[in-house]
Every structure is written in C-alpha cells, then in structure tokens.
Design goal:
alpha/beta; 234 residues; 16% strand; 10 helices
C-alpha cells in the first residue's frame, strides 16, 4: 500500500544520519517529509536530495525565505534544481512574486507563510503587526500571497476553512502545521487542530513532527495519524 501523502512528517532532527534513521523507522507509513532550517547546517539539502531521488519520497523544504526580490529569485532558482516538491517563503507579495519567477517552469510549489502557528495576538502586537483579529489578518495575507502567484499557503488549521473559501484559493494548496492528534501535547503551538479536523476544514496536507518522531514507535504513530484522516474526496 502507498502511504497517505496528506501526512507530511517533519524531520525535526539535527542531522542527516538521524534523519535517515527516522525515515527508516517510519518505513512505508509515510511518503512525504519536511526538512527545515534546523537541519540546514546538518546536511538538510543532501538529505532532501537522497530521500527524493534515492528513496522516492516527496520533500517539503521549509526555508521560509525572506529577502529582497533579486535574492529570493536567485535562491529559489537554485533550490528548484533539486526537483523537490514544496518550498516555503514569507507571504509578503513581493517575496512571493520573486519566488514564483525563480521557480520558472519547474514543478516546485511555492507555499506562502501567512502567520506562524506559534504566534497569537500578543505576539503580533510585540512585532508591530497591525491591530485586528489574527484569523482575519491570516486570511488577508493568504489572499494577497495567492494573488501574487503562490501555489498555496501555510496556515493554521483554524484558518483552513476560511482560506479554502477564498476565490483566490481555488485550485491552490493549503498546508497546515500546528496539527496534533487527540491527546498529544501542544508544545509551542498555539493555534492547533486534530488531523481529521484540519483535512475536513480544507487542508490538503498536514504537518506533524514531535508526535511522530518523539514516539517510541514512529511508524505506529504515523499510521495512527493517517488512520484519523477522513476519506479522500472523489
């Protein structure tokens, strides 16, 4: 059986060796993996390349790029050569436009970060983000990023349904971190939902890290999560 690729397992481990060990332990229970900044100096790109081209896994490179347009375009052009699946950039329209240009005609999907799932309204105040409801701000950022050329957005499960209802979201991807199986610790996430709820509310993929890689049996943990997901829509 092919693993349900709606589950993306976050490889939040320090280096390539531990990443490969974790993927081996999970085995056939997951086919899509996220590699983020935490592993960048531990060989993250090498791991991404090996998992994609040697093991046939799908790869989400979570770099959350943010810079001037020319730099974003050059960085994305370089990363697109790895033939990976997803890449994150910050959802500011000028960043998204540059990333969309940089990926060119490749199959790389540019996902825009709206508001990090570890933030709440108090955090936005500290960051001098305009007043207003955090869900509404996320919705506005999503609409602008999609209009600027993003292939999809990263958003908390609590905003997935609202984003899915946007005209700009038709045919676009919604990927939701901040997903926790029932009974799991929330950790540093503040805007969360269960796997079933996130998919039901419009997410295409869910990202789960600690509940899988901290489990005594990561394969069983991944299997339990995909078992919670609703049937795929015809």
């Amino acid at each position: 059986m092919t693993a349900d690729d709606r589950l993306i397992v976050a490889l939040d481990v320090p280096n390539v060796v531990q990443g490969l060990e974790l993927v081996a332990r999970i085995g056939e229970e997951a086919s899509f993996y996220k590699i983020g900044l935490g592993m960048l100096t531990g060989g993250g790109l090498a791991l991404a390349n090996e998992l994609k081209h040697e093991q046939g896994k799908r790869i989400f490179l979570d770099m959350k790029l943010f810079d001037i347009g020319a730099t974003i375009e050059a960085a994305v052009r370089g990363l697109a050569q790895y033939d990976l699946d997803f890449l994150t950039v910050h959802g500011d329209p000028q960043v998204v436009t540059a990333a969309a240009t940089g990926k060119g005609g490749t199959n790389l999907k540019i996902l825009a970060v709206t508001v990090l799932t570890s933030l709440d309204r108090a955090d936005l105040d500290a960051n001098l983000i305009k007043p207003g409801d955090i869900h509404q701000i996320t919705l506005e950022r999503a609409a602008r990023a999609l209009a600027a050329g993003a292939d999809g957005v990263i958003a908390s499960p609590q905003e997935a349904a609202m984003i899915r209802a946007l005209p700009e979201a038709k045919g676009k991807l919604i990927v939701t971190p901040g997903v926790r199986p029932a009974g799991a610790a929330t950790g540093d996430q503040k805007r969360i939902a269960t796997p079933h709820q996130a998919i039901t509310d419009g997410a295409d993929h869910i990202v789960v890290g600690r509940p899988v890689w901290q489990a005594k049996d990561p394969a069983a943990a991944a299997r339990a999560i995909t078992g919670e997901l609703p049937p795929r829509q015809a």
